[in-house]
Amino acid sequence: MWVSGDPLADPGLYRACVAGFDRSGLWPVLIPHDPRFAANGEDWLTDRGRLAPAAHRVGNIDAGATLARWWDPFCCPNGTGCLRPYGATFPGLAKKSQLRVDPLAEAGNTGSILVRRAPYRLGLVPVERPADVPATLGWTGMIKSTDEVAAVSAVLRSWEDRFGATLVVLGFDELELSVAAPPRNQSRSLVLAAEHRAFSLRSFSGQPGTLREYAAGLVHRRHWRFSWD
């Protein structure tokens, strides 16, 4: 991965890198400032370990089966009430949303907006599709939950295909995606909410409310954020 030494000053540069992806084969990710490392003069990209690159394994992994394995019904204080209408069994994958916006254009716009709001370095990763960035790098951001980085990219591929969800931000233990085709009603977003919870339990348990309330926030939502701290 090539990484800029300084934060991006021009929001349009991210959009330009996205627009050039088909020609360059380099997907741009925004790398946020992380005060946990800055205080010690560290850079997690170079000072922390990585897993073995696993992009070659992503295509053989079933996203639905992976999320079913990661589904943990024991997060609610009193049984599975917070997961209603689901419980101990993962409900399966949400249906594909109709794509009305170009996912790459959406990613370029989302990234440029983020650059205006906060400092990000630019990373360029040689991949065939954005979802493969974690597996290509051997990213360890989800290591407290799983060391299956190829499975992480398999889920991201599935979201790319079904929702036009595209990786934009790569942090030490966080990912952010732009979403070109979010679910448009509560019933579809409820199944997607279960996927989110299986993928990153911390992202779900870190917010108040039930799965139904979390799902309501996914309707028409064009920006997803996950963390594994």
From TrEMBL:
Domain DUF4253: 121-229
Pfam family, one: DUF4253
InterPro entries found in the cross-reference section: DUF4253
Domain of life: Bacteria
Name recorded for this polypeptide: DUF4253 domain-containing protein
Species: Amycolatopsis deserti
